[in-house]
Amino acid sequence: MLKANRLARGLTVDQAVAALHAVYEQATQQQCRLTREQLTHFESGGRPSSRYQDVFCRFYRTGPVQMGWAVDYSAQPVTDAAPAMWLTPSCAGPVDDSLENGVHAAKEATMLRRSLLRTTATAGILLPVAILDEADGIRARMDRALDSGSLTDGDLDRWGQTVQERGHAFKTMPAREVLIEVIADFAELLTHAGHHQPTAVQARLCGLSSRLAGIAGNVLTDIGDVRAGGRWFATAVRAADQAGDRSLHAWVLARQATVGLYLGQSAETAISRAVEAQRRAGRVRCSGAVLAAATEARAWARLGHAAAARNALGRARTIAEGLPEADRANSIFGYPHRQLSFHVASTLTLVGSVREAERATREALSQYPAGEYVNPALICLDKAACIMRAGDPAAGHRHALQTLTAVPTQYRTALVLSRARELATVALDAGEASQRRARDFTAAVNALEHAATGT
Description:
It is a single chain. By secondary structure, the protein is mostly helical. Helix content is about 70%, strand content about 0%. It has 22 helices and no strands. It has helices at about 1-10, 15-30, 35-45, 50-60, 65, 90, 95-120, 130-145, 155-170, 175-195, 200-220, 225-245, 245-260, 265-280, 285-300, 305-320, 335-350, 355-365, 375-390, 395-405, 415-420, 430-455. α15 runs parallel beside α17 (about 335-350). The N and C termini lie far apart (about 65 Å). The relative contact order is 0.05.
């Protein structure tokens, strides 16, 4: 009857879905989630939830009895009141779809079980045709339930493109803008998470959710909200686990280790996460594995363990050489060669190999396009550290302040400022002039932060 009503009005499935959305949203003041796949499923015999039954009846100017969803007992003789257990959910008040469908299925199962029990007294091994037909109808509905979902392959492909775009935007857009887009995307994906999805679709949905949560965790940590960033990273790890994607899990852990190392978390914590990320990746050469090895190198360098740092850096170079092309993209999900140059420069700066670090810094800076600000700023701050270690702290501080001033305010995040503040202690001695210079430099960094944040 549902399909007959649509065809009688000369509507395509897409036209009907659009019209039903308008009716639903006008009646409820809520967004309608009905998809063309769901409408086709209902037209093929699937039972709509009570809220969809209502919108169908409103739109087609009919009632649940005429549509076959309810029975009119008004002409039946009066009998004893039915037991309360047979009240339908709609009699008892609003319930969620899964409960309504579950009660309906339980009634069908009870009726079928009673019919089967009645056949035990009959001779032979075959069941009556009517019961077999009823059973096959139930089986067919289970097939439809297993195949149903709120996302098609085309939907997932479009979502995959959207997530990739967010990954590229991370490199060139201000953190605040990226975060707004990512959270909006995540909220939209969440509407599909409550639907039953086929296994392959569910895995892709979890992978997309993990990537978006990873971007959010990274951005929130970059702008200084480490605790909120940690919660998003935890969600990203959980989603990656449910997706069954070891490379994705490695990427999430590596990103968390990287931003944490810049924002005051212990080097030991960064090493632990980086090592776990490499273990997760296993023998697979992926962006998460090389980022993890490079982050481990920088963490060892921060602890003063030059040999361990160079060893990890060697692993990063080896993995980077074998990366597939997709993992070299200039995206938060990729690891282009210039990022390796950046991490090499940072590691060598921290271990005090000034000449090597200066060469690596020049190489890294030459590879970055004009539209990127954060990584080039961090490289320039490493260059300032090299200048200071070479014996000219005042020139190093001037170079650092020039770098920060040149960075647009919307890119002057907590990540960049924290690296700048570390320079206050580079080449610091007990002399009064050195102490005063460090205080003046810190005050200048604080003033630039105030200009960026208004705090």
